[in-house]
């Protein structure tokens, strides 16, 4: 269910970005960034698509289990309209089309159980988890799922016994934000 939704204006300027995460047990979290274009629409078509940040907010949303990608998209549209409160009829809604890597560390007060890599493609409804054990390479595991399962519940499925006692932290990606 973790996903990145970008909204573009009719001139293809980035208007808003919603990063929806399920990094805690039965909790949903949104990172919202609003943008404005650097130049007005009256500028010639050769202008760059430069934007600047005008709003930034992190907030929780109610956790829900979904039955389909279409149901998630409908809920996202409702959430966006509630947050932005502008006419978005000429805007384009684009989910991140590429595979996204989410990386988590598992730690306890005594040891380092490992690192979890989750490669996900929301639109293709694919998610793959790889546990790289910090204890023994024999404990490395891989499982596959779909986009309807949150990252945290996927980690619990493969690492249920130790996840109860581990501190699970998401590692922020390096480099500039898009």
Describe the structure.
- The C terminus is likely disordered.
- A 5-stranded antiparallel beta sheet has the order 4-3-2-1-5.
- It has 2 domains: 93 residues, no CATH class; 72 residues.
- A hairpin with a 2-residue loop joins β2 and β3.
- It has 178 residues and is α+β, with helices and mostly antiparallel strands.
- The protein is elongated.
- The longest helix is centred in the middle third of the chain and has 16 residues.
- It contains 3 helices and 10 strands.
Keywords:
2 domains; 178 residues; alpha+beta; disordered C terminus
Summarize the SSE layout with pairings.
Blueprint: E1 3-8, E2 14-24, E3 27-37, E4 51-61, H1 69-84, E5 92-95, E6 100-107, E7 114-121, E8 126-133, E9 141-145, H2 151-158, H3 160-163, E10 167-171
Antiparallel strand pairs: 1-2, 1-5, 2-3, 3-4, 6-7, 6-10, 7-8, 8-9
When the domains are counted, the total is: 2
The secondary-structure class comes to alpha+beta
Uncertain runs are: 174-178
For the largest sheet, list the strands in their spatial order: 4-3-2-1-5
Helix proportion of residues, in percent?
10-25%
Radius of gyration: 19 Å
Number of helices: 3
Number of strands: 10
Distance between the termini: 20 Å
Largest sheet: 5 strands, antiparallel
Proportion of residues in β-strands: 35-45%
Q: Which series of helices and strands comes N to C?
A: EEEEHEEEEEHHE
Query: What is the mean pLDDT?
Result: 83
Which descriptor suits the 3D outline? elongated
């Amino acid at each position: 269910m973790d996903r990145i939704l970008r909204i573009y204006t009719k001139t293809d300027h980035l208007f808003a970005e919603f990063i929806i995460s399920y990094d805690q047990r039965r909790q949903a979290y949104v990172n919202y960034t609003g943008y404005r274009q650097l130049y007005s629409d009256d500028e010639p078509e050769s202008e760059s698509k430069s934007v600047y940040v005008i709003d930034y907010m992190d907030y929780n949303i109610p956790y829900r289990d979904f039955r389909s990608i279409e149901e998630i998209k409908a809920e996202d549209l409702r959430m966006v309209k509630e947050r932005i409160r502008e006419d978005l009829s000429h805007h384009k809604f684009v989910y991140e089309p590429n595979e996204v890597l989410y990386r988590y560390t598992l730690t306890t007060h005594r040891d380092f159980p490992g690192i979890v890599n989750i490669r996900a493609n929301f639109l293709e409804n694919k998610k793959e988890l790889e546990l790289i054990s910090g204890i023994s390479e024999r404990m490395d595991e891989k499982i596959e799922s779909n986009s309807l399962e949150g990252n945290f519940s996927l980690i619990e499925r493969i690492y249920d016994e130790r996840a109860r006692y581990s501190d699970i932290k998401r590692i922020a990606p390096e480099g500039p934000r898009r």
